[in-house]
Write a structure and sequence with these properties.
CATH class of the largest domain in chain B: Alpha Beta
Largest sheet of chain A: 7 strands, mixed
Largest sheet of chain B: 7 strands, mixed
Strand content of chain B: 15-25%
Structural class of chain B: alpha/beta
Radius of gyration of chain B: 28 Å
Number of domains of chain A: 2
Oligomer: heterodimer
CATH superfamily of the largest domain in chain A: Aldehyde Dehydrogenase, Chain A, domain 1
Helix content of chain A: 40-55%
CATH topology of the largest domain in chain B: Aldehyde Dehydrogenase, Chain A, domain 1
Number of helices of chain A: 16
Number of domains of chain B: 2
Strand order of the largest sheet of chain A: 10-13-14-9-8-15-16
CATH architecture of the largest domain in chain B: 3-Layer(aba) Sandwich
Radius of gyration of chain A: 26 Å
Shape of chain A: globular
CATH architecture of the largest domain in chain A: 3-Layer(aba) Sandwich
Strand order of the largest sheet of chain B: 10-13-14-9-8-15-16
Number of strands of chain A: 18
CATH superfamily of the largest domain in chain B: Aldehyde Dehydrogenase, Chain A, domain 1
CATH topology of the largest domain in chain A: Aldehyde Dehydrogenase, Chain A, domain 1
Number of helices of chain B: 18
Strand content of chain A: 15-25%
Distance between the termini of chain B: 89 Å
């Protein structure tokens, strides 16, 4: 079996050969990725079910469809993305061609996560392939069945010269990171992200970090309670709450909370029935360790459980749980929950809610539910987050036109759609100067004088909007 | 002290004062006044720091800063406005856009070779994007650092933008604080330390580093013009430019011609005695002087070679027949020494370049389009100028930055604004069309799944941006037609 170093050297040699550069090669690889999904839907469903008891519905939408959509989007737009972009020039450079070339970086490393084990590794791969790079994929060892499936399918469908899967745990990842890559794309936790950045600094490797945090959901003012409850419940309990963009906690007034709770209960019943443990549409917690952490959080919490609270270690089941009277210092408010527990904190005013959010780290997503557009605008203007969605949750991720990424503690960089292509490209500024008019260049040469300087100043002034200058040169 | 500065700025930023566009434009105008009203003071400081000529100062620093400020001021409305993006069927009736937002408090660490441009150009973007900023000018260009510290609070909001001076210790202390972005210009060695420090707070960085920028001269080109342009770019600022052509690659048959043309040009630019030319700068200090001079060991001097430590003067020097293993080829020269390395044609030149770290800039001189195309497509570098040097830096619509060892991130013009902003993805939905959402809710049925997939698809929209509207228009048209038929039927 090849060592990590050998894999990397092989990929680097492949990249140097230029094989990934032609658009035809990239399209072929993207089409092969499509076939991977088309031919293996059942195996994918099985693997995700084994890892997370993920219901078919969720696997299809969040692991297959979202990735396939992005592949199609890339295939349709790749030729355009690859074209150089010509840019405006000033008078001194009017006879020259100025353009930006998108060029591949080289060999990139993509480290996936366990909660969406296919999506979080293959969606970045689309951008890497589209941009003409080679890539090493390091799937999470926690989602074992998907890891195994990826290790089997990637070499079967994609060029083995250019793309490889490296499996293993923390030790293997640490060794992998000692090598030099041209970009590292990591999805996961903040503590591991720091280690990745430190490893990247040794080689001056740029990174994209898709991290997490506590995504607040502000519910305020007049609203359609039933619709709000359904959307909130869907976004929270999708993948059993194990989504980096799941609404982590709710901030609302006591009145809103009391009005909302019956609708939340109704929504939960309509989704998962009266006994969610029997519903085939609710997933499970990924490992015993994660289950322990969540159950421990519930125990430590001083809030009052109003819905759910049941759990079963054997099946790693935790019921969709809503807990009220949670305050700032509660155990549930000290870390990202990443499970099917929804704390509701009460506030007296919108200002209080916004201040609460702003005192904390910038989240990956921020949600505001209100029928009053002023409320939505105020929250948007006065907070910061990776992404923002009003009156719904998670769905902003499904639009390839929107960049997906964090800010501050929730991450750096972004991807999805064209943004993935841009993330894995170097934008090279190019200028093709004319041989002509060397007499004009004289203005810049020594011996210097005031008159030349004035001419140059005039000729190099930024082109103002709407100024259609006819070049003297 | 550094902690107080960072904390203080954070508090001021959180007050929201820097967000209104009016405020940002006001600060930009104030910055413009600073460099125009105090131009003479700046020129004087640079003369003391680098023996820089006033024209050189304007040409290489002030014009770029001025242009960036004017551009930012006139385009800010556009840059800061929400940027709508393509939707899918699910979001057809929603508002979907990217909202540029300030990051918070940014740290800008400057460098000594262009002490004003390297700090103020990033500052223009920081202000335009609505951030607060700490500026840390290089202590090596001490007169400029001192002047910057004195002038900035006289023109800009001194609570929002502050200058911290000092050396390595102060910089290290600053780097321990938490910033929302660090913009560093300097060496790769220190760049790694900056990135390491940034890692502790998960702070994104822009690193404008350096490297050895190669300059390939093809035998098919106007060698005289090429050499004039190269001489200008190499010896301006005494070679202390991150994108100066570091070394020349050419075939042996044209080496002597190149030396001859450079000699002619040097005479024209700096006359017989560059030491007494008012247009020729000096090395920044004796440490760098010693470093650069030592690089000449082993080399054959074709032109120049004179030096005077008391003035930190090194004459414009060309070295011929330089071999790849010489010390001068192991590090960025950053001085007025121009080595010529001979290669047997384009293939070898490309191979030579690719065997080394990706440079900040790459130059190729040729009248043959195939040569240019191959050089562009078979190498990588931060930026490129073909048939000239340095000039890609002057076009503010081109992103300026490195790749690999030469850096990460980019700036100039709008690119600085974008670099120092957060691009927040926004989806503004209403509670309407809840019926559509039923498709995604459990319990799963085949029909629901089919519907959910259909509305998620981007496949229809990707072929044409008007597809969604075509469908809606068609549905409306059908509806109107049905209504018309009903009305006519009733009337008849």
């Amino acid at each position: 079996m090849e060592s990590q170093k050998q894999v990397l050297e092989r990929l680097r040699a492949a990249f140097r050969s230029g094989v990934t550069l032609p658009v035809h090669f990239r399209l072929t690889q993207l089409e092969a990725m499509m076939s991977l999904f088309e031919d293996n839907e059942n195996q994918i469903l099985e693997a995700l079910h084994e890892d997370l008891a993920k219901p078919k519905f969720e696997t299809v939408l969040s692991e297959i469809e979202i990735v396939v959509n992005d592949i199609c989007y890339a295939i349709s737009n790749l030729q355009t993305w690859m074209q150089p972009t010509y840019v405006g020039t000033n008078l001194a450079t009017k006879l020259d061609d100025c353009f930006v070339r998108s060029e591949p970086l080289g060999v990139v490393l993509i480290i996936g996560a366990w909660n969406y084990p296919l999506h979080l590794i293959l969606l970045p791969l689309i951008g890497a392939i589209a941009a003409g790079n080679c890539a090493i994929l390091k799937p999470s060892e926690i989602s074992r069945a998907t890891e195994k499936l990826l290790a089997e399918l990637i070499p079967k469908y994609l060029s083995q010269e250019c793309y490889a899967v490296v499996c293993g745990g923390a030790e293997e990842t640490k060794t992998l990171l000692e090598n030099r890559f041209d970009h590292i794309f990591y999805t996961g936790s903040q503590s591991v992200a720091r280690c990745i950045l430190l490893a990247a600094a040794v080689h001056l490797t740029p990174v994209t970090l898709e991290l997490g945090g506590k995504c607040p959901c502000l519910i305020y003012g007049r609203l359609d309670m039933k619709a709000a409850a359904k959307r909130l419940v869907w976004a929270k309990f999708f993948n059993t709450g194990q989504s980096c963009v799941a609404p982590d906690y709710v901030l609302c007034t006591t009145e809103t909370r009391d009005a909302l709770l019956p609708f939340i209960k109704e929504a939960l019943e309509s989704f998962y029935g009266s006994d969610p443990q029997q519903s085939p549409d609710l997933g499970r917690i990924v490992t015993d360790r994660h289950w322990d952490r969540l159950v421990e959080l519930l125990k430590k919490s001083e809030g009052k459980i109003v819905i759910g609270g049941e759990s079963d270690k054997k099946t790693k089941y935790i019921a969709p749980t809503v807990i009220v009277d949670v305050i700032e210092s509660d155990a549930l408010m000290q870390e990202e929950i990443f499970g099917p527990i929804l704390p509701i904190l009460t506030i007296k005013s919108l200002d209080e809610a916004i201040n609460f959010v702003n005192e904390r780290e910038k989240p990956l997503a921020l949600y505001a539910f209100s029928d009053e557009s002023q409320v939505v605008t105020t929250v948007l203007e006065r907070t910061s987050s990776g992404g923002f969605c009003s009156n719904d949750g998670i769905v902003h991720m499904s639009l390839p036109g929107l960049p997906f990424g964090g800010v501050g503690a929730s991450g750096m960089g972004n991807y999805h759609g064209r943004w993935g292509f841009e993330t894995f490209s170097h934008k090279r500024g190019c200028m093709m100067r004319s041989w002509l008019l060397e007499c004009v260049n004289v203005l810049r040469y020594p011996p210097y004088n005031e008159s030349n300087l004035s001419w140059l100043r005039w000729a190099t002034t930024a082109k103002k909007k709407g100024w259609a200058a006819c070049s003297v040169m | 002290m550094e902690k107080q500065v960072a904390d203080g700025l954070r508090e001021v930023f959180q007050s929201g004062r820097s967000r209104p566009l009016q405020y940002r434009k006001q600060q930009l105008r104030a910055l413009l006044r600073l460099i125009t009203e105090r131009q003479e003071d700046i020129e004087q400081a640079l003369k003391q720091d680098l023996n820089r000529n006033t024209y050189n100062t304007s040409l290489f620093e002030l014009i770029s800063i001025e242009n960036d400020i004017k551009l930012a001021e006139s385009e800010l409305g556009d840059w800061a406005a929400p940027r709508p993006v393509k939707k899918n069927l699910n979001s057809a009736l929603d508002d979907v856009y990217i909202k540029p937002e300030p990051l918070g408090v940014v740290l800008i660490i400057g460098t000594w070779n262009y002490p004003w441009a390297m700090i103020l150009q990033p500052l223009v973007g920081a202000i335009a994007a609505g951030n607060a900023a700490v500026l840390k000018p290089s202590e090596l260009s001490e007169h400029s650092a001192r002047l910057m510290k004195e002038l900035l609070p006289l023109y800009l909001d001194k609570e929002m933008y502050q200058v911290v001076t000092g050396g390595v210790a102060e910089t290290q202390e600053l780097l321990k604080q938490r910033f929302d972005h660090i913009f560093y210009t300097g060496s790769s060695t220190v760049g790694k330390l900056v990135m390491e420090a940034a890692a502790h707070h998960l702070t994104p960085v822009t690193l404008e580093l350096g490297g050895k920028s190669p300059c390939y001269i093809d035998k098919n080109c106007d060698i005289a013009v090429a050499c004039r342009r190269i001489t200008w770019g190499k010896f301006a600022n005494c070679g202390q430019t991150c994108i100066a052509p570091d070394y020349i690659l050419c075939e042996p048959s044209i080496q002597d011609r190149i030396v001859e043309e450079i000699q002619k040009t040097l005479l024209e630019f700096y006359q017989k005695d560059p030491k007494s030319s008012p247009d020729y700068c000096r090395i920044i200090n004796t440490r760098h002087f010693d470093r650069v001079l030592a690089l000449m060991n082993e080399c054959t001097i074709a032109l120049g070679g004179e030096s005077d430590r008391s003035q930190c003067f090194i004459a414009p020097t060309v070295l011929k027949d330089v071999l790849p293993h010489f010390k001068i080829m192991q590090e960025e020269i950053f001085g007025p020494l121009l080595p010529i390395v001979t290669v047997n044609g384009l293939n070898e030149a490309i191979h030579f370049i690719n065997a080394r770290e990706k440079p900040l800039a790459l130059y190729v001189f040729s009248s043959d389009k195939t040569v240019i195309k191959r050089m562009l497509t078979e190498t990588s570098s931060g930026g490129v100028t073909v048939n000239d040097v340095l000039m890609h830096y002057t076009v503010d619509s081109l992103p300026f930055g490195g790749v690999g060892n030469s850096g990460m991130g980019r700036y100039h013009g709008r690119h600085t604004f974008d670099q120092l902003s957060h691009h927040r993805a926004c989806l503004i939905k209403s509670f309407a069309m809840e019926g559509l959402n039923d498709a995604r809710y459990p319990p799963l049925t085949a029909a629901r799944l089919r519907k959910a997939k259909f509305f998620m698809q981007h496949r229809m929209c990707s072929c044409s941006g008007i597809c969604v509207w075509a469908i809606i228009a068609t549905l409306l048209a059908i509806g109107l037609l049905v209504a018309l038929i009903v009305v006519l039927t009733v009337l008849i």
